[in-house]
Design brief:
The complex is a heterodimer of chains A (about 110) and B (about 110). By secondary structure, chain A is mainly beta. Chain A contains no helices and eleven strands. In chain A, strands 2, 4, 5, 6, 9, 10 and 11 form a seven-stranded mixed beta sheet that branches. In chain A, strands 1-3-8-7 form a four-stranded antiparallel beta sheet, with no helix packed on it. In chain A, strand 7 and strand 8 form a beta hairpin. Chain A starts with a strand and ends with a strand. The model of chain A has no long low-confidence stretch (mean pLDDT about 95). Chain B is an all-beta fold. Helices cover about 0% and strands about 45% of the residues of chain B. In chain B, the strands form two sheets. Chain B has a five-stranded mixed beta sheet with strand order 1-9-8-3-4, with no helix packed on it. Classes of the chains: A mainly beta (about 110), B mainly beta (about 110). Chains A and B meet through strand 5, strand 9 and strand 10 of A and strand 4 and strand 8 of B.
Chain lengths: ~110, ~110
């Protein structure tokens, strides 16, 4: 069990550029979650997948954000036309069915939009 | 989801027992209480979950009174490495998403 991994760990981009983050969950976990965390705040839920199906999206997830989980394995989160307000830590987590209260988080991708 | 209230910060010294209390006056019958720990520059980590009375694992104990309107996370004999933010969450065990507040920032000093 290598845990949840995220790539890249850090990303600096200019406003208006597109960015894509990747998350590899724990292999036997069929649930995958994305959260966003800004300084001094707790993580905020963005979206989650059960296998390849995206079952819930937060209102925080504007049209510029899209997430996919092809084949129910890894997931990508893309932000188009980044804005300075998108600067945050993007966290991915995974869990087993029936144990969604026990989510395993990755180290996060820190995005800085200049 | 029930709203939770925790102290913003707490200070302690190595070797002491730390108790962090969380208030959740509007907890529903089916809700469980879950605690997460987050170190700087890392994702949160599940610590413990309980419904009533007392739950203990190798990391912490969770005390829940009969009315369940509050809960206390107890960390025995803390060390410097316990410096972290601790989040109290309340929800049904099958809830799909975790709803974090601002948590309690614990600082353990030598």
């Amino acid at each position: 069990d290598t845990g949840v991994s995220q790539d890249p760990r850090h990303k600096i981009t200019k406003r208006g550029q597109n960015v894509t983050f990747r998350c590899d969950p724990i292999s036997e976990h069929n649930r995958l979650y994305w959260y966003r965390q800004t300084l001094g705040q707790g993580p905020e839920f963005l979206t989650y997948f059960q296998n390849e199906a995206q079952l819930e999206k937060s209102r925080l997830l504007s049209d510029r954000f899209s997430a996919e989980r092809p084949k129910g394995s890894f997931s990508t989160l893309e932000i188009q036309r980044t804005e300075q307000g998108d600067s945050a830590m993007y966290l991915c987590a995974s869990s087993l069915d029936g144990r969604s209260y026990e989510q395993y988080f990755g180290p996060g991708t820190r995005l800085t939009v200049t | 989801l029930a709203k939770t209230t925790q102290p913003i910060s707490m200070d302690s010294y190595e070797g002491q027992e730390v108790n962090i209390t969380c208030s959740h006056n509007n907890i529903a019958t089916n809700d469980y209480i879950t605690w997460y720990q987050q170190f700087p520059s890392q994702g949160p980590r599940f610590i413990i979950q309980g419904y009533k009375t007392k739950v203990t694992n190798e990391v912490a104990s969770l005390f829940i009174p009969a009315d369940r309107k509050s809960s206390t996370l107890s960390l025995p004999r803390v060390s410097l490495s316990d410096t972290a933010v601790y989040y109290c969450l309340v929800g049904e065990p099958g809830f799909q998403k975790l709803v974090f507040g601002t948590g309690t920032r614990l600082l353990v000093s030598p």
